[in-house]
Design a protein that fits this description.
- By secondary structure, the protein is an alpha/beta fold.
- The protein folds into three domains: about 230 residues, P-loop containing nucleotide triphosphate hydrolases (Rossmann fold); about 210 residues, Nucleotidyltransferase, domain 5, CATH 3.30.420.240; about 50 residues, no CATH class.
- It has 18 helices and 26 strands.
- An eight-stranded mixed beta sheet has the order 7-8-9-6-10-11-5-12, with helices on both faces. Strands 13, 14, 15, 16, 17, 18 and 22 form a seven-stranded mixed beta sheet that branches. Strands 20-19-21 form a three-stranded antiparallel beta sheet.
- It is elongated, with a radius of gyration of 32 Å.
Length: about 550
């Protein structure tokens, strides 16, 4: 066979498929040893490009050896590593071992951008070209987007999205810099691809990234650390990398900033800059898994007959853009606690009232505050007129005070509240105090994520571009609500107790004594029921006797 036919597309560094290669006894031993030990194969035969020295053998550092062992021994791995730590190169070297020594294996290299994924594949191809010919598999397909070997193993490179690997069957999925994938893409990707991965017994997911805020990568990392998932965590400190010492740290901070060093090298999960909530406080917010979850409705505590609840609602159009959302807050006592939340972008304003009515009834006829700037008015009207729900807050305009809770003697009364600049400003200010003073307990991942990207724009706050703030706006409404005088009066425990005692005294003082016939039989004290407006109260009957 001519030399041209032995190479792939005349590339002298690539062997064509179906080319027979003779092995020496020493090469057979080496091949077997490489197939059984990925670390040995990587250090002995893989070459990488060094910025200072060009093409050099890949000498694994201790933490990189630990990474390879973790990948090899576990199906699910997640790595939180500093920038420029050789994390991607380590995984690429391991993937190269997989395709060479396993037949019929499909691998997907996915990154936040398609160009980055193709660049990663290019680095793997470079290492492949510098392997000895007797270690190579023959090439069937070789381009910038995918490769296919004669042992029917394949690798593709694409951007991380719900459609990237849909319809395919993959044994290994490598997600590079996963924290930098937009949240909606990351979530839809896992919803589409995870059923395929979980159906196999030996399939693997390898996730590696530097932190980038409190997003899905943050959640998956925390779940792995707290052993709430099957992912095996691998964490590397910046000073685990040879050559990085205190002087290097000082020089890096001088050339960047302390905040950037924290995120890029100390791998601290940070929120965005200029968030409403102090970033140091955001770091302390820990999420937990809900006890029940269905179509965006997450429950953290089931209704308790002894507790009082408030629900604040933000309604969207249900067109897969913004979310319709509400939060359920236990307001029985301080600190307030979020016990449930709803977040869904396909429910319509027509369907929202029946669902909201059901939930509000279950949570002890919870008091409702609905934002009515847009389609929320439709929901508020339905709750009031169609479902005749009584615990629905109203608001009114009172001179310079603007909107206040309750109607009073105003003629300008409306169901719910309009989110004006004044309402939002007051709500944001109060919400900041509630969270930073630990008077509102938040354990929901979606809320924490939204808070980490709820940033200042001019004189107000809103979500960063590409992010959402629907749940945060529900909390802004709640914060405005609890700062209203009317709310404080109707929810204060002492005031309710005083009002109840006054009612009881009034009833007892105004009861007309009446005579009874004493037949000598001792009856147990009974209860009578008196109606006070729409409220029924149990009142003990006095033990009257004839003189």
């Amino acid at each position: 066979m001519s030399e041209e036919l032995k190479t792939y597309l005349r590339n002298p560094n690539l062997k064509a498929s179906n080319v027979k290669v003779g092995f020496t006894q020493e090469q057979i031993k080496e091949y077997i040893k490489c197939s059984k030990d990925p670390k040995y194969f990587i250090e002995k035969y893989i070459q990488i490009v060094s910025l200072d020295k060009g093409l050099v053998p890949f000498r694994l550092w201790d933490f990189q050896k630990r990474m390879v062992d973790t990948f090899h021994d576990n199906r699910f791995s997640i790595c939180k590593l500093p920038r420029q730590s050789g994390k991607s190169t380590t995984i690429l070297a391991y993937l190269l071992h997989c395709v060479l020594f396993q037949s019929d294996i499909n691998i997907a290299i996915l990154a936040n951008k398609g160009s980055l994924a193709r660049e990663l594949l290019g680095r793997l191809q470079l290492a492949y070209e510098h392997l000895p010919a007797w270690l190579q598999q023959g090439i069937k397909v070789w381009n910038k987007g995918n490769i296919e070997l004669e042992n029917n193993s394949k690798i593709i490179a694409a951007a991380t999205s719900s459609s990237a690997v849909r319809g395919g069957s993959y044994n290994i999925i490598f997600l590079d810099e996963f924290a930098h994938v937009p949240s909606h893409f990351a979530l839809s990707f896992f919803n589409s691809v995870y059923p395929t991965i979980s159906s196999g017994k030996n399939t693997k997911v390898l996730i590696v990234s530097t932190p980038n805020g409190m997003n899905l990568f943050y959640k998956m990392w925390v779940d792995a650390i707290e052993q709430r998932s099957n992912y095996q965590p691998v964490e590397i400190n910046w000073n685990d990398i040879p050559g990085r010492d205190d002087k290097w740290k000082a020089d890096t901070i001088a050339n960047t900033s302390p905040e950037q060093f924290e995120q890029e090298f100390e791998c601290v999960f940070q929120g965005s800059i200029d968030t409403l909530i102090n970033p140091k406080i955001l770091k302390t917010l820990a999420h937990r898994n809900p006890i029940s979850s269905n179509d965006g409705f997450d429950i953290y505590e089931y209704p308790d007959d002894e507790k009082i609840y408030a629900i604040c609602v933000d309604v969207a159009h249900g067109k897969r853009l913004d979310y319709s959302a509400f939060v359920i807050v236990d307001i029985t006592q301080l600190p307030y606690r979020i016990v449930g939340k709803f977040r869904n972008n396909i429910i319509t304003p027509l369907a929202m009232p029946s669902f909201l009515y059901k939930i509000a009834r279950q949570y002890n006829e919870a008091t409702l505050l609905i934002e009515v700037n847009d389609v929320g008015q439709q929901v508020a009207d339905a709750m009031n007129y169609d479902y005749e729900y009584e615990n629905l807050f109203v608001s009114s305009v009172k001179g310079r005070k603007g909107q206040i809770l309750g109607g009073g003697h105003s003629n300008n009364i409306q169901l719910g509240v309009r989110t004006t600049a004044q309402v939002k400003r007051m709500g944001c200010s109060t919400l900041k105090s509630l969270i930073e003073d630990k008077k509102l307990l938040i354990e929901d991942f979606d809320i924490i994520t939204e808070l980490s990207s709820f940033v200042q724009y001019g004189n107000s706050y809103r979500a960063e571009d590409g992010e959402h703030d629907d749940l945060v706006m529900c909390l802004v409404l709640f914060a405005w609500l609890i700062d209203q005088r009317y709310f404080k009066e109707v929810t204060d425990q002492d005031i309710r107790k005083t009002l109840e005692e006054q009612r009881m005294k009034y009833i007892e003082d105004n009861m007309t004594p009446f005579g009874v016939i004493d037949d000598g039989i001792q009856y147990d004290q009974d209860d009578s029921y008196f109606e006070d407006g729409d409220q029924w109260m149990v009142v003990p009957l006095p033990d009257y006797k004839l003189e």
